[in-house]
Design goal:
With 285 residues, the protein is α/β, with parallel strands linked by helices. The protein has one domain: Alpha-Beta Barrel (TIM Barrel), CATH 3.20.20.70. 36% of the residues lie in helices and 15% in strands. An eight-stranded mixed β-sheet has the order 1-2-5-6-7-8-9-10. It has a two-stranded parallel ribbon with strand order 3-4. Helix 6 links the parallel strand 6 and strand 7.
């Protein structure tokens, strides 16, 4: 049975508006997007009040229509060549020593936006030489040249999420491909084994425990280093329903199983997201 109300473990302290104003003002000044806002992340207040955010490049309109995601779908904007410099400036203004950069999916671009990713990584490093960069990338439709372009910019971590188990892809991610995502992670390792790879799953979409464990095995077979597990939360009535809320104790059991399978770092809790505790997770690898 689909559950409607959030369980008590989702209750969070309300963050005063004033505590997030530094980040929101800077984002407005530099005309930057964050996945925190676009994807309705439940951790936005916590992260903004701590002076950090996950930047989203290549606009805020996605060319795909994944049924779990709150990011706007439609015809995307033109690529802004000045965006990498503004991202680098924001990183400097916020004094970040670790930054996560993601994007919408841009199937309209010949390289899927990989060149813009590479430019952004390079610009952040140029202006902030001690800052470590993690990127959360789309699948670039499996284009090996695009994957290589990002890897050659040498971020510390390349993240690409499976999001769910293969049986649910037709319903959850109809324009994605489970095996293609695994191949992308494998390709990164073959290009540069010193780059850490990372992936994540949303739970509560109807997956079974065996399917989750099999996904762990699939990720370890491509030498994925870091894993995130979080609860799927329905962004609106237009999105997929939650099939079940996973208890924190089950998240802990999944963490123990994943660690036993060889992941170097695992973040597993209801409110975990791709960039949640990203800096801390990367310190364990």
């Amino acid at each position: 049975m689909t559950q409607k109300r959030l369980p008590p473990w989702f209750k969070q302290r309300i963050v005063p508006k004033a505590s997030v104003s530094r980040v929101t003002s800077l984002l407005e000044e530099l005309n930057l997007n964050t996945v925190c806002e676009s994807a309705h992340c439940p951790n936005l207040g916590k992260c903004y009040s701590a002076g950090t955010a996950t930047f989203m490049i290549l606009g805020n309109i996605c060319t795909r229509n994944c049924r779990f995601c709150a990011v706007i779908k439609g015809k995307p904007q033109k690529v802004d060549p000045e965006e990498p410099r503004r991202i680098a400036r924001a990183v400097r203004e916020l004094e970040l020593d670790y930054v996560v950069i993601t994007s919408v999916t841009r199937d309209d671009l010949p390289d899927g936006g990989s060149g813009h990713f590479a430019c952004t990584i390079q610009e952040v490093k140029r202006l902030n030489p001690v800052t470590e960069v993690e990127v959360l990338i789309p699948d670039f439709q499996g284009n090996p040249v695009s994957i290589q372009q990002v890897a050659e910019a040498y971020p510390r971590v390349i993240n690409h999420n499976l999001e769910t188990v293969p049986a649910l892809y037709p319903r959850v991610r109809p324009e994605a491909n489970y095996q293609r995502s695994l191949t992308l992670l494998k390709k990164v390792k073959s290009l540069n084994s010193s780059i850490y790879t990372k992936s994540g799953l949303m739970l509560g979409l109807g997956e079974t425990e065996d399917e989750v464990n099999n996904a762990f095995d699939d990720l370890r077979r491509v030498d994925c280093d870091i894993l995130t597990l979080g609860q799927y939360l329905r962004p609106s009535a237009e999105h997929l329903e939650v099939k079940g809320y996973i208890h924190p104790e089950q998240f802990q059991r999944y963490k123990e199983k994943a660690c036993a399978k060889g992941f170097k770092s695992v973040v597993s809790e209801p409110l975990a997201r791709s960039s949640y505790q990203a800096k801390e997770a990367s310190r364990w690898v």
